[in-house]
TrEMBL record:
Belongs to the aldo/keto reductase family. The record marks K75 as: Lowers pKa of active site Tyr. The active site is at Y50 (proton donor). Substrate binds at H107. PROSITE patterns: ALDOKETO_REDUCTASE_1 (PS00798), ALDOKETO_REDUCTASE_2 (PS00062). This is Oxidoreductase. Residues 23-259 form the NADP-dependent oxidoreductase domain. The lineage of its organism: Bacteria, Bacillati, Actinomycetota, Actinomycetes, Actinomycetales. SUPFAM superfamilies: NAD(P)-linked oxidoreductase (SSF51430). Keywords: NADP, Oxidoreductase.
Length: 272
């Protein structure tokens, strides 16, 4: 399952299901990438901030991994500086570590600095130079995305945001759909907090699957791209095994009722 979206003069296929490397220790990152690809994932979500790109890149260079079949993501952190030179230096470092980058995201808008549009212009420059296939954002609001579009004419391919049954972001998802932006969910299991919810557990029991599989399947049926994270090979395999069942309309509606607007990660307004 994947979604093909336009970006500049080309089209890029983004897998609906990938795995993330957030908080994966560097000494485990190589193994996790190898096991994730072996489990069938074709989207590897990394970032400068995760401090494990060198190890992930080592895995991507393994002879038994077909790098051309993968979408590898990195993200610009930009805490110290967001000027053009900082963006280019950050990209250079991630590119050296990973070998190549398919999807590059602005990790946070940091709106009080007022520089995210300029950062986006540098991203466009990188894409137009052929150094990255596609560009997008993470943790952006509707207003911030519209600024990018209005001031540059370029629509992000992806907006990666915290999204799970307790934080469903319905209005933002509708905005994305209107502008052909892929919604990509980080912390898709609510950092485990949604997995003991009685509604999720009941639906899991009805299908004979795990609560995590129910939540991942819910994301896919909503049309989200989803990037669960695990350091364990068996959990990576289980999280990918979500295509043998389908949630019914009543079950989707029951999960829709769970929305609480609860963040378990950093809220975008709190990262400046």
């Amino acid at each position: 399952m994947s979604k093909t979206l336009a970006t500049g003069r080309i089209r890029v296929m983004i897998p609906a299901l990938g795995f993330g490397l957030y908080k994966v220790p560097p000494n485990k990152a190589e193994e996790v990438v190898v096991e994730g690809v072996k489990a069938g994932y074709r989207l590897v979500d990394g970032a400068e901030f995760y401090a494990n790109e060198v190890e992930a890149g080592r895995a991507l260079r393994h002879d038994d991994i077909d790098r051309s079949s993968l979408i590898v993501t990195s993200k610009f952190w930009g805490e110290e500086s967001q000027d053009r030179d900082a963006v280019l230096a950050s990209f250079d470092a991630s590119e050296r570590a990973l070998g190549s980058i398919d999807l590059y995201l602005i990790h946070w808008p940091r709106p009080e600095r007022g520089q995210f549009v300029d950062v986006w212009r540098t991203f466009i420059e990188l894409r137009d130079a052929g150094r990255v296939r596609a560009i997008g954002v993470s943790n952006f609001s509707e207003e911030q995305i519209m600024r990018l579009i209005d001031e540059t004419g370029e629509v992000p391919l992806v907006n990666q945001v915290e999204l799970h049954p307790y934080l469903q972001q319905a209005e933002l998802r509708a905005f994305h759909a209107e502008h052909d932006i892929l919604t990509q969910a980080w912390s898709p299991l609510g950092r485990g907090n949604v997995l003991t919810d009685p509604t999720i557990v009941q639906i899991a029991d009805a299908h004979g699957v795990s609560p995590a599989q129910v939540v991942i399947r819910w994301h896919l049926q909503l049309g989200n791209s989803v990037i669960p994270k695990s350091e364990r090979a068996e959990r990576l395999r289980s999280n990918a095994d979500v295509y043998g069942f389908e949630l019914g309309d009543a079950q989707m509606a029951a999960i829709a009722e769970l929305d609480r607007g609860t963040h378990y990660g950093t809220a975008p307004a709190d990262r400046q």
